[in-house]
Amino acid sequence: MKTMTLDELARVSGVSVATVDRVLNERGGVSPRTTKKVLQAAREAGLKRILPEEHRQPWQIEVMLSGNDSFFFKQLASDFATVATALGYRRIVLHRTFIPESRPDKLAAHIIASSQRCDGLIVFAHEHPAIYDALSVCKRRGVPVVTLVTDLPGAERLCHVGINQLQAGRTAGLMMGNFLKREGEVIMVSGRFEYSAHQQRIQGFRDVLHERFPHLVLKEALAGQESRNTISKLLEKQLVQSKTVVGVYNTGLGNTQVSEALARHRLTDSCILITHELYATTRALFAKGTLALTLDQNTRRHAQLSVDMLLRYLEKGVVPAAQDGKVKFMLYTAENYH
């Protein structure tokens, strides 16, 4: 039988000759996933040499999150750290990176660079050609990617972890309609219009109000653009123009600014406010009687599911089903937020 050369083994394994050399001579610096692939190829080819034990280095996982200052992403980052700590540094090394949502080009470049040094990626991103291209690069390199919160239909990813955003919007609309028996205007405050999560929340909310609550007049959504100052200005202008506001639905950050605007117009007691996430601000609004309902995405569940599915794939080759990444959102009122 012809002796296999390092060049041939590298070609069969789909890696460089230098990587094969590092694996066979135990020089380190190679991920467990790649090490396993090279050694498996060497065994199947009957390579005539003593093969090393598979390396038991910790998996290198990077989480890429939004760089905005919303509670959700700060808490999500903290929850990922908690999950990684529970698993232990011998099994996983977790890296966290924050990139502005307004810089998809920067995020795409970072994804491509990280796919050269990490075993798996967990990414929050919005639909953009550069992001799709970057995920395709990860696929070609054999680096699995889990997408978070906002799904990327058709992208080269292992799975998506998140709530059903359309369903969340519809639930908010249903609760708003049930709370409001009198006629009046309802204002929607949205994050960035171009982001599918906000689009779906607004669509779901609007659809339910149109279908089931014709006594409520729905104003055009205000484009808050994830800017507290913009939200404050737009809402102030809308409240001045509208004389019969009975409800406000906020899909993103800016709950402090929304509550302050309602207070200035003496609408705190008569206006139903519905928003997202349970955190210090929404708890304070519940305590003051300002907030009627918040829909929480359960950040800890996002972090746990993402890491669990990525590790199952890296260690056992288990490909998750689409429903495995679904997270159930939770409803909180003044009666159960404690």
What does this structure look like?
With 338 residues, the protein is an alpha/beta fold. The protein folds into 3 domains: 6-45, no CATH class; 59-163 and 299-327, 3-Layer(aba) Sandwich (Rossmann fold); 165-296, Response regulator (Rossmann fold, 3-Layer(aba) Sandwich), CATH 3.40.50.2300. Helices cover 46% and strands 17% of the residues. The chain has helices at 6-13, 17-24, 32-45, 71-87, 104-114, 129-141, 165-179, 196-212, 228-241, 255-264, 280-288, 299-316, and strands spanning 59-66, 92-99, 120-123, 145-148, 159-161, 184-190, 216-218, 222-223, 245-250, 272-276, 293-296, 330-332. The protein starts with 5 loop residues before the first helix and ends in a 6-residue tail after the last strand.
Which features does this protein show?
3 domains; 12 strands; 46% helix; alpha/beta; 12 helices; Rossmann fold
Short description:
By secondary structure, the chain is α/β, with parallel strands linked by helices. It contains twelve helices and twelve strands.
Furnish the topology, listing elements before pairings:
Layout: H1 6-13, H2 17-24, H3 32-45, E1 59-66, H4 71-87, E2 92-99, H5 104-114, E3 120-123, H6 129-141, E4 145-148, E5 159-161, H7 165-179, E6 184-190, H8 196-212, E7 216-218, E8 222-223, H9 228-241, E9 245-250, H10 255-264, E10 272-276, H11 280-288, E11 293-296, H12 299-316, E12 330-332
Parallel strand pairs: 1-2, 1-3, 3-4, 4-5, 6-7, 6-8, 6-9, 9-10, 10-11
Antiparallel strand pairs: 11-12
Helix pairs in contact: 1-2, 1-3, 4-12, 5-6, 7-8, 9-10
